[in-house]
Amino acid sequence: MNIWDQVFSAVNLIALLAWTGLILLPRWPALLSAALYLGVGLLCLVYSILLVSVLGGLIPAGDGGADFTTIDGVRAIFSSDVGVTIGWTHYLAFDLFAGIWIARDADAKFFSRWVQAPILLATFLAGPLGLFLWLIIREPRSRASGRWQ
Question: Which pLDDT does position 97 carry in this prediction?
């Protein structure tokens, strides 16, 4: 197993642990803080270190170097193990952040955990789909409460 397989496995484990707690466990403040700081925070740290290393030329990324301005440049980045690892870590961090926001927002609006669970699962598996579902589901209750936020 090479270093990128190990980093990829580690970020997946971080995300899986945070999502499992977010979906299945009671929403204690300590759990939400752990998901945010140990989950999202660690993912952001790994992402930042890898991205700065690639952009600084310390780690080669793909055949054409790091170029986010063209589809060919992005394809070249994702053709390398480090590029895939950076991209995947980016998705994991933002999807988890969105999931934490959804969970907190749903709790504040008194949605049952049975309603929340499939939305959180959809966010875990297909980030923007779960977020889109939540935005649609939350809107009527937000308007009815007079606290449209």
Answer: 98
- Sorted by where each begins, the domain ranges of the chain are 3-145
Contacts of 140 (CB under 8 A, 6+ apart): none
Whole-number percent of the chain with pLDDT over 90: 67
Q: How far apart are CA 97 and CA 99, in angstroms?
A: 5
Cβ within 8 Å of residue 119, ≥6 positions away: 102, 106, 130, 133, 134, 137
Q: What distance, in Å, lies between the first and last C-alpha atoms of the chain?
A: 46
Question: What band does 74 get if pLDDT is binned at 50, 70 and 90?
Answer: confident
23 within 8 A of 121, measured Cβ to Cβ: yes
